[in-house]
């Protein structure tokens, strides 16, 4: 099985001429020889550009490779622009599997004797089909009301295929990392490892259901974004039931314009949704490509987004959020030294980085951007340039920032597709400035008081006893300290006296020995020896005693 799959992958890659993308001088003689030996697999698409050949090959290899190409299309810091743009065309649509098989999976997962036991009007023909799962429409009674729902089902045996393909990808990545001169910068093994985690997370629909519930709670009663209800008691790791939404695909610009939707406001609200998720909630939908976003039909002047497919989410901690906001503000104020210092302060680059050299590198990359009008500046590419420059200064890969960069590229591309004159910076700047003001100054104090007030109120009845215990312990510690100080002084005095008597004892021994050597009367030598014994006994008597220490001191 594995050898057949490897043969098919090799044949597909070679017949699309992907070996030509890598210069022959970069390959060891063994790989060059193997390529010539496989003479029956010639490049059959020589007339197509390299990016198109790569896209077509991934489409032919199947859903795992299509998803991999989609992920690569967001890593514009690693790929040439023409290849990245071509990979961005990959469509997340594949041939569906049999609806009857999906029905059996649902019945087994939900422990149903038949699908009709729970669902009414279950549609065997899938409503949509993607690389990991497909969706079926149905209806069911909830609290006496008939509700329209969709049932998402993971493809059968997809795990086996995914694990097999991932193993082959890792093998190929290891070969590339070892033999390509630029393999260290491209980090193929790290890219595949990142893809493995993302893909395996998407296979667990229980995780996706939890993500959807969290996002719905974050945007409850919001005018910006609607998240469909998920029926968690009917969700398993391979099946998920959720509310069916009725919206217009955000990529259907013609329909949106025909309905009179305020496209400028729609584009601006997309930016606001992104920054709200990142900086307010620290929990953001990290797969917001056009296929996962719809627009509600009921509002045209105040359009609302509808989000689906929550398998991939990103999180940021408080420090990352603050440094990101400050980085954006410093960049657009063209304060490159501040950008460099923030990267060091955040720990993204080593603390021994030369700030002046780092500042100069950032200025070299970013200053030409400001030759364009702000409306033409790509926010996502700014982030790519910053991270790419920082990588030269040993910046480690930050997984949460990679997801953020990917999502920002999606949002920016979508916003400019809806409204080409969108000025992303003018839309984002007020939000970032307001958020920064809330993190420092009196607003931050007020917010901290509000957040901690319940805890303080809970502890308030205990304050008198805590104060009494503290004062009592303080008094005990003071007494212990005084006793220990006196003991230490006495020990030092006894130690000095013991050393004095020890020195006199040694001197007496030497004197007795000298008298004996000079043949003096034995009485004199004996007296010296007796004095040495007496002085030694006094030294032993005056030795300092051990100082007792309170274990709670």
UniProtKB/TrEMBL annotation:
Alphabetized GO MF terms: ATP binding; protein kinase activity
Pfam families: ABC1
Pathway: Cofactor biosynthesis; ubiquinone biosynthesis [regulation]
EC assignment: 2.7.-.-
Keyword Iron in annotation: no
Protein topology in the membrane: Multi-pass membrane protein
Broadest EC class assigned to this enzyme: transferase
Function field: Is probably a protein kinase regulator of UbiI activity which is involved in aerobic coenzyme Q (ubiquinone) biosynthesis.
The family this protein is said to belong to: Belongs to the ABC1 family. UbiB subfamily. Belongs to the protein kinase superfamily. ADCK protein kinase family.
NCBIfam families: PRK04750.1, UbiB
Protein name: Probable protein kinase UbiB
Organism of derivation: Idiomarina tyrosinivorans
């Amino acid at each position: 099985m594995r050898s057949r799959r490897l043969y098919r992958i090799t044949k597909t890659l070679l017949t699309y001429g992907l070996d030509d993308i890598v210069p022959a001088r970069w390959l060891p003689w063994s790989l060059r020889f193997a390529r010539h030996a496989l003479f029956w697999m010639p490049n059959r698409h020589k007339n197509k550009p390299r990016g198109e050949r790569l896209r077509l090959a991934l489409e032919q290899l199947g859903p795992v490779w299509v998803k991999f190409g989609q992920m690569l299309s967001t890593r514009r810091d690693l790929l040439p622009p023409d290849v990245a743009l071509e990979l961005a065309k990959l469509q997340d649509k594949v041939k569906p599997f049999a609806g009857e098989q999906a029905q059996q999976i649902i019945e087994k997962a939900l422990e149903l004797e038949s699908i009709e036991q729970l669902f009414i009007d279950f549609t065997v023909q899938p409503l949509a089909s993607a690389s990991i799962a497909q969706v079926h429409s149905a209806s069911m009674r909830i609290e006496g009301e008939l509700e329209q729902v969709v049932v998402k089902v993971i493809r059968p045996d997809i795990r086996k295929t995914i694990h097999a393909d991932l193993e082959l990808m890792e093998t190929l990545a290891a070969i590339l990392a070892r033999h390509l001169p630029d393999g260290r910068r491209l980090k193929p093994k790290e890219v595949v490892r990142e893809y493995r985690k993302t893909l395996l997370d998407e296979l667990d629909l229980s995780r996706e259901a939890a993500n959807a519930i969290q996002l719905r709670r974050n945007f409850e009663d919001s005018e910006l974004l609607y998240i469909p209800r998920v029926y968690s008691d009917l969700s398993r790791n391979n099946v998920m039931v959720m509310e069916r939404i009725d919206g217009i695909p955000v990529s259907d610009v013609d329909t949106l314009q025909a309905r009179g939707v305020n496209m400028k406001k729609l584009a601006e609200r997309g930016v606001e949704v992104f920054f709200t998720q990142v900086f307010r909630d620290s929990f953001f939908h990290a797969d917001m490509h056009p296929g996962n976003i719809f627009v509600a039909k009921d509002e045209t002047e105040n359009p609302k987004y509808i989000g689906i497919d929550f398998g991939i989410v990103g999180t940021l901690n408080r420090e990352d959020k603050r440094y990101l906001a400050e980085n954006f503000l410093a960049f657009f104020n063209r304060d490159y030294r501040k950008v460099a210092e923030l990267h060091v302060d955040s720990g993204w680059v080593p603390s021994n980085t030369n700030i002046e050299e780092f500042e100069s590198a950032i200025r070299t990359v970013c200053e030409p951007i400001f030759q364009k009008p702000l409306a033409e500046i790509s926010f996502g590419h700014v982030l790519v340039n910053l991270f790419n420059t920082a990588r030269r200064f040993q910046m480690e890969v930050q997984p949460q920032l990679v997801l953020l960069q990917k999502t920002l590229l999606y949002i920016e591309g979508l916003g400019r597709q809806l409204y080409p004159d969108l000025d992303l910076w003018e839309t984002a700047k007020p939000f970032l400035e307001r958020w920064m003001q809330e993190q420092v100054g009196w607003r931050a104090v007020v917010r901290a008081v509000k957040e901690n007030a319940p805890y303080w109120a809970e502890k308030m009845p205990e304050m008198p006893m805590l104060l009494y215990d503290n004062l009592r312990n303080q008094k005990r510690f003071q007494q212990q300290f005084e006793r220990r100080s006196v003991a230490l002084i006495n020990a030092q005095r006894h130690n000095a006296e013991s050393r004095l008597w020890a020195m006199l004892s040694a001197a007496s021994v030497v004197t007795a020995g000298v008298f004996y050597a000079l043949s003096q009367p034995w009485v004199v030598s004996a007296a010296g020896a007796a004095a040495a014994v007496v002085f030694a006994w006094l030294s032993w008597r005056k030795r300092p005693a051990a100082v007792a220490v309170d274990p709670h001191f």
